[in-house]
Amino acid sequence: MTISTVNSTTATTTTTTAASNSSSLGISSEDFLSLMVDQLMNQNPLDPTDTDSYLDKLVSYASYDTQTSISEDLGSVVDTISSSLSSLGIGYVGMTVSASGSTTALQDGSADWTYTLDSTAEDVTINVLNESGKVVYSETGNAASGTHDFSWDGVGSDGEQLDDGGLYTLSVDATNSAGKDVTGSTTVSGLVTGVDFSDGETVLNIGKAAISIDKVLSVLSS
Question: What are the FlgD Tudor-like domain coordinates in residue numbering (predicted)?
């Protein structure tokens, strides 16, 4: 059986919401005003409180209360913008991601995948196919159960160095000792060079390779 996962372009927008912590003052400006009135009503007539001082305190408190409210509103705006950028995929540009799929672009003389075997195999053949479906490179793969990294330097089986930018698909043929197919999956990794919203979906571009944002498994580096 061939382990070959086609990159999906059906995107499900994911939203990352940053949580903001708001500080509680423990007393509102209304409470402060009420306390001030109570104190003025119950003050010592022979030693009255300086009204100007009280008003200064009230103005100062009101100003602080307003600044706190503005700060919280700005925090909410920042969170909204951050969430929107994440859901649109803009935050991924310039970052290296790992995503479910089998097709990626040759970037800087390298194309990187991982393949996972659900059980131990007897024979594993790794094939790299070009955009026409032609096998341009083959080698024997790791037959152990689990996940294995595979990096290709863009040199074909004929010894020719292929140009950057081309799309290549990883196909893994794995069988066990009984000759039965071993199931598994593949992932791709690469530098996100752009984001496409043209069809109303969020698709990340690794060169010419299109990766649905919902297929992203992890961000490897920036």
Answer: 90-216
